[in-house]
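Thread: quick sanity check before group meeting

JM: Hey all, I'm pulling together slides for Thursday and realized we never actually wrote out the predicted structure for the chain we discussed last week. Dropping the sequence here so it's in one place. If anyone has concerns about the input, flag it before I start.
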Amino acid sequence: MKLTEHLFFYPERGMPGCNTYVIKDKTKVIIDPGFEMHLEGLVKDMAKDGIDPRDIDIVTNTHLHLDHCWANQAFKNISGAKIMIHDLHKKYFRLNLVEMPKLFASFFDFGMKPIEFKEDSLLSDKLNTGEMEFELLAAPGHSPDSICFYCRDKKILICGDVVFDQSTGRVDFPGGSAAELKASIGRLSQLDIEYLLPGHLNIVKGKEAVKRNFNFVREYVFPWL
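JM (edit): ok, ran it. Output follows.
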C-alpha cells in the first residue's frame, strides 16, 4: 500500500509477524521484513506496487525481536540487499537473538528454529535515501535496542513497537522497562508527525490524530505499564 511518494506499508499477516515498511527512493530500504513464513506473501504484495526484492538495497530493523527480523537473511538471499543494523542492535544482539528465544523454547518446539543473520555494516544516526533523510532515534523501553526512523521533512515516524494505535509495546521481555518506554514516548510525542507508523496494528495518519493517540496512551495506557 502506497502511503507517500516514496513510502509503502505492508500490514502484518498474523501472529507472529509485524508491519513492514519499504522506502522506494534512490536508495531502497525495507524496514522490518518480519517472519520468514510470511515472506512469500510480502513479496507478492510488494510486486503489486511494482517493487521487486532485487530493487532493495538495504534490509534493516526497528529492533531485533524475532517477529521483526526473522526474515532478514531470507530476504537478503532473494534480493542481494545488505543487512544494516544500528549500534544498539549490535550491543543487544545476543540478548534478543540468543537469550530471548530460550525463554520461548516451547514455541520453537513446533518445528520452527530462529534463523541467525550477520550484518553487512552498521547504520549511522542518519539514513539518507535520496529525497528523504531519516534520523535514527533511540527509543528504549519495549526493547533496549529499539530505534525509530524519523523523517523530519515529511513528518514520518516509523516507530516499531514503541507506541501503537491506542497502545504500546509490552515491557516484560528481557531488557524491557516501563519507565524507559514512558520517557521514550514522551520524547517522540514532541515531534512533528503526520504519519505514525508502528510495528503492529493500525497506522495513524494526520497531525491531530497522532496527537490524540499520544494523549490516549498517556492517559489510559501508561497507568498499566
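AS: nice. Residues 2-224 form a domain with the Metallo-beta-lactamase; Chain A fold (CATH 3.60.15.10). The radius of gyration is 16 Å.
JM: adding both to the slides.
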